[in-house]
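As a warm-up, study this chain.
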Amino acid sequence: MIDLNLKIKILNELGFYISNIINNNPKSILDNLTKSIINKNRWFDEKSIIYSLKSWSNLLKSDLIEKWLDKYKLSYIEKKKTIALILPGNIPLVGFHDILCIWILDYQGIVKLSSKDDVLIPFLTDYLEKEIGYKSFLFTTSRIKKFDAVIATGSNNSSIYFEYYFSKYPNIIRKNRTSIAVLEGNETELDLNNLGKDILLYYGLGCRNISKIFIPKGFNLNKIFKGLDTFSHVINNSKYANNYYYNKSIFLINKDSFLDNGYFLLKEDSKLYAPISCAFYEFYNDIEDLKSKLYDIKDNLQCIVSKKRSIKAISFGSTQTPSFQDYADNIDTIKFLINI
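Now compare it with the structure written out below.
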Protein backbone atom coordinates (compact mmCIF):
# COMPACT_ATOMS: atom_id res chain seq x y z
CA MET A 1 0.00 0.00 0.00
CA ILE A 2 1.32 3.45 -0.91
CA ASP A 3 2.21 5.85 1.89
CA LEU A 4 0.89 8.76 -0.13
CA ASN A 5 1.37 11.36 2.61
CA LEU A 6 5.06 10.48 2.82
CA LYS A 7 5.47 10.70 -0.94
CA ILE A 8 3.79 14.11 -1.06
CA LYS A 9 6.02 15.28 1.80
CA ILE A 10 9.16 14.14 -0.05
CA LEU A 11 8.08 15.85 -3.28
CA ASN A 12 7.39 19.05 -1.37
CA GLU A 13 10.87 18.82 0.15
CA LEU A 14 12.32 18.22 -3.31
CA GLY A 15 10.75 21.50 -4.40
CA PHE A 16 12.55 23.31 -1.55
CA TYR A 17 15.78 21.49 -2.37
CA ILE A 18 15.63 22.61 -6.01
CA SER A 19 14.83 26.17 -4.92
CA ASN A 20 17.89 26.19 -2.67
CA ILE A 21 20.07 24.98 -5.53
CA ILE A 22 18.77 27.73 -7.80
CA ASN A 23 19.49 30.32 -5.13
CA ASN A 24 23.11 29.12 -5.01
CA ASN A 25 23.02 27.42 -1.64
CA PRO A 26 25.45 25.79 -2.13
CA LYS A 27 26.53 27.37 -5.42
CA SER A 28 28.84 24.48 -6.31
CA ILE A 29 25.91 22.10 -6.88
CA LEU A 30 24.33 24.29 -9.56
CA ASP A 31 27.70 25.08 -11.14
CA ASN A 32 28.67 21.42 -11.39
CA LEU A 33 25.26 20.47 -12.74
CA THR A 34 25.18 23.11 -15.45
CA LYS A 35 28.76 22.45 -16.54
CA SER A 36 28.12 18.73 -16.83
CA ILE A 37 24.87 19.25 -18.76
CA ILE A 38 26.18 21.91 -21.15
CA ASN A 39 29.29 19.84 -21.94
CA LYS A 40 26.96 17.11 -23.22
CA ASN A 41 24.38 19.28 -24.95
CA ARG A 42 25.03 22.81 -26.20
CA TRP A 43 21.31 23.43 -26.63
CA PHE A 44 20.97 23.38 -22.84
CA ASP A 45 22.33 26.70 -21.60
CA GLU A 46 22.31 27.91 -18.00
CA LYS A 47 19.14 29.98 -18.45
CA SER A 48 17.22 27.01 -19.86
CA ILE A 49 18.40 24.68 -17.11
CA ILE A 50 17.52 27.13 -14.33
CA TYR A 51 14.12 27.91 -15.89
CA SER A 52 13.23 24.22 -15.99
CA LEU A 53 14.40 23.64 -12.42
CA LYS A 54 12.55 26.72 -11.19
CA SER A 55 9.34 25.60 -12.92
CA TRP A 56 9.50 22.30 -11.07
CA SER A 57 10.35 23.92 -7.74
CA ASN A 58 7.25 26.10 -8.11
CA LEU A 59 5.10 23.08 -8.95
CA LEU A 60 6.32 20.71 -6.25
CA LYS A 61 4.07 22.08 -3.50
CA SER A 62 2.00 19.87 -1.22
CA ASP A 63 -1.32 21.55 -2.05
CA LEU A 64 -0.74 21.30 -5.81
CA ILE A 65 0.31 17.66 -5.57
CA GLU A 66 -2.70 16.78 -3.39
CA LYS A 67 -5.05 18.50 -5.84
CA TRP A 68 -3.50 16.51 -8.69
CA LEU A 69 -3.74 13.13 -7.00
CA ASP A 70 -7.01 13.51 -5.10
CA LYS A 71 -9.24 11.88 -7.73
CA TYR A 72 -7.21 8.69 -8.14
CA LYS A 73 -7.64 6.90 -4.77
CA LEU A 74 -4.01 5.81 -4.92
CA SER A 75 -3.79 4.34 -1.41
CA TYR A 76 -5.58 1.23 -2.64
CA ILE A 77 -2.94 0.29 -5.21
CA GLU A 78 -0.93 -2.62 -3.84
CA LYS A 79 0.62 -4.51 -6.77
CA LYS A 80 3.82 -3.07 -8.18
CA LYS A 81 4.34 -2.93 -11.94
CA THR A 82 7.50 -2.43 -13.97
CA ILE A 83 7.30 0.35 -16.55
CA ALA A 84 9.67 0.83 -19.46
CA LEU A 85 10.21 4.52 -20.03
CA ILE A 86 11.91 5.92 -23.13
CA LEU A 87 12.45 9.65 -22.80
CA PRO A 88 13.23 12.42 -25.27
CA GLY A 89 15.93 15.02 -24.69
CA ASN A 90 14.76 18.10 -26.54
CA ILE A 91 14.39 20.32 -23.45
CA PRO A 92 15.68 19.94 -19.86
CA LEU A 93 13.67 17.53 -17.67
CA VAL A 94 11.10 16.94 -20.41
CA GLY A 95 10.29 13.45 -19.10
CA PHE A 96 10.22 14.21 -15.39
CA HIS A 97 6.41 14.19 -15.20
CA ASP A 98 6.40 10.55 -16.35
CA ILE A 99 9.07 9.78 -13.76
CA LEU A 100 6.91 11.26 -11.00
CA CYS A 101 3.84 9.31 -12.13
CA ILE A 102 5.77 6.04 -11.81
CA TRP A 103 7.30 7.01 -8.46
CA ILE A 104 4.00 8.16 -6.96
CA LEU A 105 2.44 4.77 -7.72
CA ASP A 106 5.41 2.95 -6.16
CA TYR A 107 6.07 1.20 -9.46
CA GLN A 108 9.50 0.29 -10.79
CA GLY A 109 10.89 2.18 -13.77
CA ILE A 110 13.39 0.95 -16.34
CA VAL A 111 14.45 4.19 -17.98
CA LYS A 112 16.27 4.83 -21.22
CA LEU A 113 17.31 8.47 -21.18
CA SER A 114 18.25 10.52 -24.17
CA SER A 115 21.99 11.13 -24.25
CA LYS A 116 21.05 14.81 -24.61
CA ASP A 117 19.40 14.92 -21.18
CA ASP A 118 20.91 12.24 -18.94
CA VAL A 119 22.12 14.31 -15.98
CA LEU A 120 19.21 16.20 -14.42
CA ILE A 121 16.69 13.38 -14.12
CA PRO A 122 19.03 10.93 -12.32
CA PHE A 123 20.10 13.82 -10.07
CA LEU A 124 16.49 14.35 -8.96
CA THR A 125 15.57 10.66 -8.74
CA ASP A 126 18.61 10.11 -6.52
CA TYR A 127 17.07 12.58 -4.08
CA LEU A 128 13.69 10.81 -4.17
CA GLU A 129 15.23 7.39 -3.66
CA LYS A 130 17.43 8.49 -0.76
CA GLU A 131 14.46 10.04 1.00
CA ILE A 132 12.11 7.09 0.45
CA GLY A 133 14.82 4.54 1.31
CA TYR A 134 14.73 2.26 -1.74
CA LYS A 135 15.46 2.23 -5.46
CA SER A 136 12.65 2.91 -7.91
CA PHE A 137 14.53 3.43 -11.18
CA LEU A 138 17.05 1.54 -13.24
CA PHE A 139 18.71 3.67 -15.91
CA THR A 140 19.98 1.72 -18.89
CA THR A 141 21.41 2.23 -22.37
CA SER A 142 20.68 -1.38 -23.36
CA ARG A 143 17.57 -2.93 -24.83
CA ILE A 144 14.80 -2.89 -22.23
CA LYS A 145 13.42 -6.27 -21.17
CA LYS A 146 10.92 -7.67 -18.65
CA PHE A 147 8.36 -4.95 -18.14
CA ASP A 148 4.58 -4.67 -17.86
CA ALA A 149 3.94 -1.53 -19.89
CA VAL A 150 5.80 1.15 -21.80
CA ILE A 151 5.74 4.91 -22.22
CA ALA A 152 7.86 5.99 -25.18
CA THR A 153 8.30 9.49 -26.54
CA GLY A 154 10.06 10.30 -29.78
CA SER A 155 9.70 11.46 -33.37
CA ASN A 156 7.19 10.26 -35.93
CA ASN A 157 9.93 8.01 -37.34
CA SER A 158 10.90 6.47 -34.01
CA SER A 159 7.23 5.93 -33.16
CA ILE A 160 7.01 3.44 -36.05
CA TYR A 161 9.67 1.35 -34.33
CA PHE A 162 8.03 1.81 -30.92
CA GLU A 163 4.62 0.72 -32.22
CA TYR A 164 6.13 -2.38 -33.83
CA TYR A 165 8.26 -3.45 -30.87
CA PHE A 166 5.85 -2.54 -28.06
CA SER A 167 2.49 -3.36 -29.68
CA LYS A 168 1.89 -6.39 -27.44
CA TYR A 169 2.28 -4.33 -24.25
CA PRO A 170 0.00 -1.67 -22.78
CA ASN A 171 1.60 1.50 -24.07
CA ILE A 172 1.60 5.24 -24.51
CA ILE A 173 3.55 6.16 -27.63
CA ARG A 174 3.99 9.86 -28.26
CA LYS A 175 4.88 11.32 -31.65
CA ASN A 176 5.78 14.77 -32.92
CA ARG A 177 3.47 17.55 -31.81
CA THR A 178 3.69 21.30 -31.87
CA SER A 179 1.82 24.31 -30.52
CA ILE A 180 0.08 27.27 -32.12
CA ALA A 181 -1.10 30.78 -31.32
CA VAL A 182 -4.32 32.43 -32.48
CA LEU A 183 -4.17 36.22 -32.38
CA GLU A 184 -7.13 38.59 -32.40
CA GLY A 185 -5.23 41.77 -33.21
CA ASN A 186 -5.90 43.48 -29.89
CA GLU A 187 -3.10 41.80 -27.94
CA THR A 188 -1.19 43.99 -25.49
CA GLU A 189 2.56 44.50 -25.50
CA LEU A 190 2.75 42.12 -22.53
CA ASP A 191 0.76 39.48 -24.46
CA LEU A 192 3.20 39.69 -27.36
CA ASN A 193 6.24 39.60 -25.08
CA ASN A 194 4.80 36.44 -23.58
CA LEU A 195 4.18 35.07 -27.07
CA GLY A 196 7.88 35.62 -27.72
CA LYS A 197 8.58 33.50 -24.66
CA ASP A 198 6.25 30.78 -25.94
CA ILE A 199 8.10 30.80 -29.25
CA LEU A 200 11.76 30.98 -28.24
CA LEU A 201 12.10 29.63 -24.71
CA TYR A 202 14.38 26.55 -24.96
CA TYR A 203 15.24 27.83 -28.47
CA GLY A 204 11.84 26.63 -29.69
CA LEU A 205 12.79 22.96 -29.33
CA GLY A 206 9.80 21.78 -27.29
CA CYS A 207 6.45 20.46 -28.46
CA ARG A 208 4.90 23.20 -26.31
CA ASN A 209 6.77 25.92 -28.22
CA ILE A 210 4.76 27.92 -30.75
CA SER A 211 5.71 27.17 -34.35
CA LYS A 212 2.57 28.42 -36.13
CA ILE A 213 0.61 31.66 -35.67
CA PHE A 214 -2.86 32.38 -37.01
CA ILE A 215 -3.42 36.11 -37.45
CA PRO A 216 -6.26 38.35 -38.65
CA LYS A 217 -5.94 40.23 -41.93
CA GLY A 218 -3.99 43.46 -41.58
CA PHE A 219 -2.07 42.41 -38.49
CA ASN A 220 1.31 44.15 -38.13
CA LEU A 221 3.87 41.35 -38.05
CA ASN A 222 6.51 43.65 -36.62
CA LYS A 223 4.62 43.38 -33.33
CA ILE A 224 5.60 39.70 -33.20
CA PHE A 225 9.24 40.59 -33.78
CA LYS A 226 9.08 43.21 -31.03
CA GLY A 227 7.75 40.57 -28.65
CA LEU A 228 10.83 38.45 -29.38
CA ASP A 229 13.29 41.19 -28.36
CA THR A 230 14.16 39.71 -24.96
CA PHE A 231 15.28 36.53 -26.73
CA SER A 232 17.65 38.16 -29.23
CA HIS A 233 20.53 36.43 -27.40
CA VAL A 234 19.55 33.09 -29.01
CA ILE A 235 21.69 33.96 -32.02
CA ASN A 236 24.77 33.68 -29.77
CA ASN A 237 24.19 29.94 -29.50
CA SER A 238 26.11 28.35 -32.37
CA LYS A 239 23.62 25.51 -32.80
CA TYR A 240 20.72 27.94 -33.05
CA ALA A 241 22.68 30.28 -35.35
CA ASN A 242 23.49 27.38 -37.69
CA ASN A 243 19.77 26.62 -37.98
CA TYR A 244 18.91 30.27 -38.53
CA TYR A 245 21.44 30.81 -41.33
CA TYR A 246 20.63 27.46 -42.94
CA ASN A 247 16.89 28.06 -43.04
CA LYS A 248 17.37 31.62 -44.24
CA SER A 249 19.59 30.31 -47.07
CA ILE A 250 16.97 27.74 -48.07
CA PHE A 251 14.27 30.43 -48.21
CA LEU A 252 16.54 32.64 -50.32
CA ILE A 253 17.47 29.83 -52.70
CA ASN A 254 13.79 28.96 -53.15
CA LYS A 255 12.96 32.67 -53.59
CA ASP A 256 10.43 32.44 -50.77
CA SER A 257 9.01 35.58 -49.20
CA PHE A 258 9.83 35.91 -45.52
CA LEU A 259 10.52 38.45 -42.79
CA ASP A 260 13.82 38.54 -40.92
CA ASN A 261 14.90 40.46 -37.82
CA GLY A 262 18.47 39.17 -37.70
CA TYR A 263 17.83 36.16 -35.47
CA PHE A 264 14.34 34.89 -36.31
CA LEU A 265 12.29 34.29 -39.45
CA LEU A 266 8.57 34.69 -40.11
CA LYS A 267 7.13 33.05 -43.21
CA GLU A 268 3.58 32.85 -44.50
CA ASP A 269 2.93 29.14 -44.92
CA SER A 270 0.01 26.76 -44.50
CA LYS A 271 2.25 24.08 -43.00
CA LEU A 272 2.06 23.45 -39.27
CA TYR A 273 5.62 22.54 -38.33
CA ALA A 274 8.19 25.27 -38.78
CA PRO A 275 11.95 24.66 -38.56
CA ILE A 276 14.05 25.92 -35.65
CA SER A 277 14.56 29.73 -35.79
CA CYS A 278 11.33 30.20 -37.74
CA ALA A 279 7.56 30.46 -37.24
CA PHE A 280 4.96 30.09 -39.94
CA TYR A 281 1.96 32.38 -39.99
CA GLU A 282 -1.39 32.16 -41.73
CA PHE A 283 -4.19 34.68 -42.07
CA TYR A 284 -7.76 33.84 -41.13
CA ASN A 285 -11.05 35.65 -41.83
CA ASP A 286 -13.71 33.67 -40.00
CA ILE A 287 -13.22 32.23 -36.53
CA GLU A 288 -15.64 29.36 -37.16
CA ASP A 289 -13.66 28.28 -40.20
CA LEU A 290 -10.49 28.45 -38.13
CA LYS A 291 -12.04 26.37 -35.35
CA SER A 292 -12.89 23.73 -37.92
CA LYS A 293 -9.30 23.74 -39.16
CA LEU A 294 -7.99 23.43 -35.62
CA TYR A 295 -10.24 20.46 -34.99
CA ASP A 296 -8.81 18.74 -38.07
CA ILE A 297 -5.24 19.14 -36.79
CA LYS A 298 -5.93 18.55 -33.08
CA ASP A 299 -3.90 15.33 -32.99
CA ASN A 300 -0.82 17.33 -34.00
CA LEU A 301 -1.25 19.99 -31.32
CA GLN A 302 0.09 20.11 -27.79
CA CYS A 303 -1.04 23.64 -26.87
CA ILE A 304 -3.11 26.48 -28.25
CA VAL A 305 -2.37 29.99 -27.00
CA SER A 306 -5.02 32.67 -27.47
CA LYS A 307 -7.24 35.25 -25.80
CA LYS A 308 -10.20 34.13 -27.90
CA ARG A 309 -12.84 32.80 -25.53
CA SER A 310 -14.41 30.59 -28.18
CA ILE A 311 -11.21 28.56 -28.46
CA LYS A 312 -10.03 26.20 -25.73
CA ALA A 313 -6.68 27.82 -25.12
CA ILE A 314 -4.14 28.76 -22.48
CA SER A 315 -2.77 32.22 -21.78
CA PHE A 316 0.25 33.78 -23.45
CA GLY A 317 3.53 32.92 -21.73
CA SER A 318 2.28 29.75 -20.05
CA THR A 319 3.17 27.03 -22.55
CA GLN A 320 6.30 25.92 -20.69
CA THR A 321 4.76 25.95 -17.22
CA PRO A 322 2.16 23.17 -17.40
CA SER A 323 0.35 21.97 -14.29
CA PHE A 324 0.41 18.36 -13.08
CA GLN A 325 -2.95 17.86 -14.82
CA ASP A 326 -1.59 18.98 -18.21
CA TYR A 327 -0.70 15.51 -19.47
CA ALA A 328 1.27 15.20 -22.69
CA ASP A 329 -1.00 14.46 -25.66
CA ASN A 330 -3.95 14.78 -23.23
CA ILE A 331 -3.45 11.17 -22.11
CA ASP A 332 -3.86 10.75 -18.35
CA THR A 333 -0.64 8.94 -17.42
CA ILE A 334 -1.70 8.08 -13.88
CA LYS A 335 -4.98 6.57 -15.09
CA PHE A 336 -3.12 4.57 -17.74
CA LEU A 337 -0.67 3.18 -15.18
CA ILE A 338 -3.37 2.32 -12.66
CA ASN A 339 -5.34 0.35 -15.25
CA ILE A 340 -2.50 -1.83 -16.52
